[in-house]
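pasting for the record
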Amino acid sequence: MQLTADATRDLEAFMARLAEDVVACARLAELFRDEDFVREAQAVAAGWGLAAPGLAERLVRRTVVARRAAPPAGWLPVAVSPGEDAVDWAFFGARRLAESFFGESVPKVWSLPLNRLLRLRTPLSALEGLAGPAPDGLVFHMSRCGSTLLGRMLGAPSGATVLSEAAPIDHVVRCDLPRDRKVILLRGVVAALGRARGAGDERLFLKLDCWHALAFDLFREAFPQSPWLHLYRAPAEVMVSHARSPGMQMVPQVVAPAVFGLAQPATPDADYQAAVLAAIGEAMLAALAADEAGLLVNYAMLPEAVAGRVLPHFGWRPEAAEREAMAAAARIDAKTPERAFAPDGAAKRAEVDPAIRAACAARLDGLHARLEAASGGRI
């Protein structure tokens, strides 16, 4: 259907007003079928004295809606593209980030009719000056060491939000911009993700990508008052996990070796994987030496260390219901919540092969001992 100029203006006026009305967006975000959405959206438009012709066609076209300022709370950034000077937003409303990773939460809303109609995009400057809470805690980790478990436990109480390896944060960390601009954008993207929207507004935690250990100074400059911790695990067990299924940090074409201060490997073998893990651990030891707000936690101490060390470190004295919610989260498999948790350390140790054993001996066993010595002991 070809719209007249007047009809196009009416539709654009409706979309612009809708983007600013969180209540109306929340009402429409409940609708999954296009026909139901179109009917209800037209009713909303009529209530505003506006027409909304051509909505069905717009859903198919998925037209980007450009705006200068950040949309209201309830809209979260889902991608930051510095090279394009662009931030893409999706409407979450008061939906909790209940999934283990932010990247699993986005598809739950991205294909909704509302987010296909309003594909909001702003310049990077929309993130600057946004007000939001500083994180109550930063979680660094070596990978495959219980950070997902910890994230699920911290996010289990209804008043807490965990931003778990959120791509918009990583887009800022790894972008090619001056340091001072990155600090501003990092504060802005966390503020945008953490603004109060009726879901988990009491506490905010960042569970970072493992390579963010190498960007510790950037996070410290952005959030100088936030306590932080680093999770680590017996190196051979982590190495076996990556041998089974390599994480993206172990794929040089995905996360560049330069991120870890390494050269491009001839082959991303066990030695390269150990070098990546060593770079993370060394960065965290250096951070701890320079910053007393840090805490080292061994995976072997989980989940008991959450109540014994982590929560006190983050200044959280949970109520009984919050403690029970966290205990319930600890009883399920962090990455596959439909399953009960089962320890896997023994199975992994049984899979240690000569290449892993040699790589650990050369690069990781001594580092692990130093992490243990610096951890401050057990619970």
